[in-house]
Design a protein that fits this description.
The structure holds 2 protein chains of 2 kinds. By secondary structure, chain A is of the alpha+beta class. Chain A has 3 helices and 6 strands; from the N terminus they run H-H-H-E-E-E-E-E-E. By secondary structure, chain B is mostly helical. Chains A and B meet through helix 1 of A and helix 1 of B.
């Protein structure tokens, strides 16, 4: 081989290696601009679509916003009117509030007074409770006392019944004794007994009327005299009768006494014989 | 060029080997460029 052939071989080798290196560099370092362009185109289309959507949305929102603005303007007008009404209402409510505050103050003062009164009543109730307790204890004691008294009353009623029976028996006996002593001509009235046993006052009088009454075989002589209970005489008192000459005529026992007159029954055993009592004779209690 | 007999054939030397290496380098570069063109679907101009 000639020298030129050798040089061309080496040169061919160098150029082949450089071609390979260049092709490898292109293959390894190359960027797929087509794919990049397609990707960018797709992104651009997507961005345009998004922009169109946003524009549409913006237009719609602008329309809505304009409608809302108009609506809000209407609401502003309406609220302005309502504000005026509310302001007036607020003024009225403020006046009512002031009036109610005044009322609340008055009610508060009243409540305070009522609270004080309630406290006082509470204290009074405590006192009353104490009193009630004492009264309850007193009532309990009185009830015990009442039971004792009722028991005592029952006993006394029993004794009273016994005494009543005894009293009735005594009355029956007394009635029997009165009938017995009356049949014997003796006094049975205790008042007459007392009068008979007591001395009449020393008085003098005149016979106003004499009357003799016959009842079958027996006769009764009645004398009306000018003395009565005003002079201290009573039924049962005995008086002596005498005439103007001082002659003894008899004795009478008073059976009826009035304030200024009295009527006496002539005692038969005490009457003087062969004498007559007449109007104008004298009576006296000084002689016995 | 007349055919050579095996007895007269020159013995391969280093330059033949360099030619084979050059051939392999050319083929490798061609493969790289073919693959690069396949990425663009063999379209050179848009």
């Amino acid at each position: 081989m000639t020298t030129v052939g050798k040089i061309l071989v080496v040169l061919h080798l160098v150029l082949s290696v450089m071609f390979m290196a260049f092709a490898g560099a292109v293959f390894t370092a190359q960027k797929n601009w087509r794919k990049t362009a397609e990707t960018n185109a797709a992104q651009l289309a997507k961005a345009k679509a998004a922009a169109n959507d946003q524009r549409t949305e913006f237009e719609r929102e602008r329309t809505d916003t304009a409608a809302k603005v108009a609506e809000l303007n209407d609401q502003v007008l309406k609220l302005t009117g309502e504000k005026g009404a509310l302001f007036k209402q607020t003024t009225d409510l403020q006046a009512d509030n002031n009036r109610l505050q005044t009322a609340i103050d008055a009610v508060g003062q009243q409540a305070e007074l009522q609270t004080k009164e309630a406290n006082e009543r509470f204290l009074d109730s405590k006192v009353q409770v104490d009193k009630n307790k004492v009264a309850y204890e007193t009532r309990e004691a009185l009830q015990k006392r009442l039971l004792e008294v009722e028991k005592r009353r029952d006993i006394l009623e029993l004794e009273q019944n016994q005494m009543k029976d005894r009293h009735e028996r005594v009355l029956a006996d007394l009635q029997m004794f009165k009938q017995y002593y009356g049949a014997k001509g003796m006094l049975t009235d205790p008042k007459q007994m007392v009068v008979q046993s007591s001395s009449p006052p020393p008085v003098d009088g005149v016979v106003e009327e004499y009357r003799k009454e016959k009842q079958g075989a027996a006769s009764t002589e009645l004398v009306k005299i000018s003395l009565g209970s005003d002079e201290g005489l009573a039924v049962g008192h005995k008086l002596t009768v005498f005439n103007a000459e001082g002659r003894y005529l008899g004795q009478i026992r008073l059976t009826l006494v009035q304030p200024d007159t009295a009527v006496g029954l002539v005692i038969p055993n005490e009457k003087a014989k062969n004498t007559v009592i007449k109007e104008g004779d004298y009576v006296t209690t000084k002689l016995r | 060029m007349s055919p050579r007999s095996s007895d007269n054939a020159p013995a391969p030397d280093i330059y033949v080997a360099l030619l084979w290496v050059s051939l392999a380098s050319l083929l490798t570069g061609i493969v790289f460029l073919v693959q690069a063109l396949q990425a663009y679907d063999w379209k050179v101009s848009p």
